[in-house]
Amino acid sequence: MLIRKPNDIPSSEITPEHVYINRRHFIGKSAGIALGGIAGAGAIGGATAAGWPGRAAAQTAQVGQRDWSTVRTELGEELNSFEDITTYNNFYEFGTQKDDPARNAHTLRPRPWTIEVGGMCANPGVYGLEDFIRPGTMEDRIYRMRCVEGWSMVIPWYGFPLKDVIDRAEPLGSARYVEFKTLLDPEQMPGQRARVLDWPYVEGLRLDEARHPLTILATGVYGQDLPNQNGAPIRLVIPWKYGFKGIKSIVSMTFMEQEPFNSWKRAASFEYGFYANVNPEVNHPRWSQARERRLGPNCGVFRCEQIPTMLFNGYVDQVAGLYAGMDLRVYY
Amino acid sequence: MNKKRRILLLKGLVWLLGLAPAVWLVWRGFTDRLGANAIEEVLHRLGDTSLIALLVALSITPVRRLTGWNILAPLRRPIGLFAFFYLTMHFLWYAVIDEELALEFIIEDVIERPYILAGFTGWLLLIPLAITSTKGWIRRLKKNWQRLHRLVYLSTGLGLLHFYWQVKADTYWPIVAITVMVVLMLLRIRPRKPGRERERTVAAERPRQEPLAD
Ligand code: HEM
């Protein structure tokens, strides 16, 4: 039984710890890996929000069970280190500086966790995290991540296609969009005490974007569970869109007819739109999007070259069809 | 301790505090503590330090008036010059390290991005002040020196605008900085004082031949 109605589940039963731990077991057995590597799940050197490895230990070479040192993107790009990925990011629920999430996210309790699926679909209900993830669907996905602020990384996510969940929810024919929400709990997310954004964080996708094979729900990086600061226990990754579309610590998914009103659009609609596709031709009103600073192994204190930004973040062949006939300047 | 020695001591303190942010950055650089985006980190910390130094320089006179600690007056010049030093580093870091002297991008930034234009103008306006901060220039410019050095308000105002405009959503620190500036400006509005009292204050105020505007 993959989807259960909320009132079918006694609260004691929602995602018991051992079930979650078992998850690793079944994933380890069945993972089919996109890049032909080894499943990264399983016994992993303690990378949690509370204590990730120091810089030396975290250098890309050997995190988890896979030898990551030779892994490259399809364009030959090197990966960012585990430390870069987990100490420099935006997660305003834990503060607005890039190092705030790593410092503050220890208050988040990612287990047990449930996700409510609702709105216009045949199978609404509440999933325990372990039910949400179907055995055999987990894989490593090496994606570029382009932040709207002008920096980028290459991140080996660990996750599964969002389509898998959507198919099980069976959206109605009239549903055109899916909306996601982050946990709202200032106790766990102290950044929510400041009204920097209109909490909870909201994001959304058109259903065809959501079903696209590149769109994934990630539960890990480098084959290990997501540290809290990166959106544990489950987050969205849409590699051809700016990073802010990748909503973190998701608690709900709602199918709807109208376009979801995402948080950053709500905060400044002239600057951030619903689509937020990476596009070097469409500048942010306050800065250029033509280039990006690729953080990582080739980026030092005095030199960190800016590289040209690619249309749809380099995934143009895969996703351009979604936007045929649309004026990307209008639908930014 | 006589006055001269106390001034010397205070100046030494200003130098220590003034150099600390630079030493701190260099240390973090050598020990790999600048984070994944070191260039941005340095740029931001240089920006913060400049703005704080400007606000501290502007607070000397109001504090002196409120407390009567005229001994603080000679600190304005070194603090102002530290502000200019960090600001110039901020600009050079942006132009040389961040933009790698790519003139077409720098010019585009200055022309098209109001926050850069504001910061750039703020920095340009401070150049003549730094140049004329010596005793010789104070003598040569006489009354005009004070007038010229009032540009520091405009410059700081533009710096605040620059800070406010570049923020994505969290305006907390820009608003704190703007509030400090507003309070400092309000403290400068001198209440009308009758007769001799007023004269005395004015006498105490009389150009102390100390650079960086009043
Ligand atoms: C009065 C003059 C100036 C002041 C007071 C000032 C101050 C600041 C401050 C406080 C910040 C933010 C740091 C942070 O996020 O904590 C900043 C950022 C920045 N400043 Fe300045 N600055 C000035 C002039 C300039 C000039 C002349 C330039 C270059 C032409 C410049 C370029 C930048 C850039 C590129 C940023 C980073 C913006 C971002 O990350 O989005 N600033 N500045």
Describe the protein's architecture and organization.
The complex is a heterodimer of chains A (332) and B (214). With 332 residues, chain A is of the alpha+beta class. Chain A has one domain: Sulfite Oxidase, Chain A, domain 2. Chain A contains nine helices and 14 strands. In chain A, the strands form three sheets. In chain A, strands 5, 6, 9, 10, 11, 13 and 14 form a seven-stranded mixed sheet that branches. In chain A, strands 4-3-12-7-8 form a five-stranded mixed sheet. Chain A has a two-stranded antiparallel sheet with strand order 1-2. With 214 residues, chain B is an all-alpha fold. Chain B has one domain. Chain B has ten helices and no strands. The model of chain B is unreliable at 196-214 (pLDDT under 50). Chain A binds chain B through residues 55, 80, 83-84, 87-88, 92, 96, 98-99, 149, 151, 153, 194, 196-197, 267-268, 286-288, 291, 293, 295-296, 299-306, and chain B through 29, 32, 34-40, 42, 97, 100, 105, 108-109, 113-115, 165-166, 168-170, 172. Protoporphyrin IX containing FE (HEM) is lined by residues 40, 43-44, 47-48, 50-51, 87, 90-91, 94, 116, 119-120, 122-123, 155, 158-159, 162-163, 166 of chain B.
Give a short overview.
The complex is a heterodimer of chains A (332) and B (214). Chain A is of the alpha+beta class.
* Basic shape of chain A: globular
Mean pLDDT of chain B: 89
State the share of residues found in helices of chain B, binned by percent: over 70%
Main sheet of chain B, how many strands, which sense, barrel?
A: none
What ions, cofactors and ligands are bound? protoporphyrin IX containing FE
Task: Tell me the CATH topology of chain A.
Answer: Sulfite Oxidase, Chain A, domain 2
State Rg of chain B.
Answer: 19 Å
Number of helices of chain B: 10
Biggest interface: A-B, 33 and 24 residues
What proportion of the residues of chain A is helical, as a percent range?
10-25%
* Rg of chain A (CA only): 19 Å
CATH superfamily of chain A: Oxidoreductase, molybdopterin-binding domain
Q: What's the count of strands of chain B? A: 0
Topology of chain B as a string of helices (H) and strands (E):
HHHHHHHHHH
CATH architecture of chain A: Alpha-Beta Complex
Question: Class by helix and strand content of chain A?
Answer: alpha+beta
* Helix and strand sequence of chain A: HHEEHHEEHEEHEEHEEEEHEEH
Total beta strands of chain A: 14
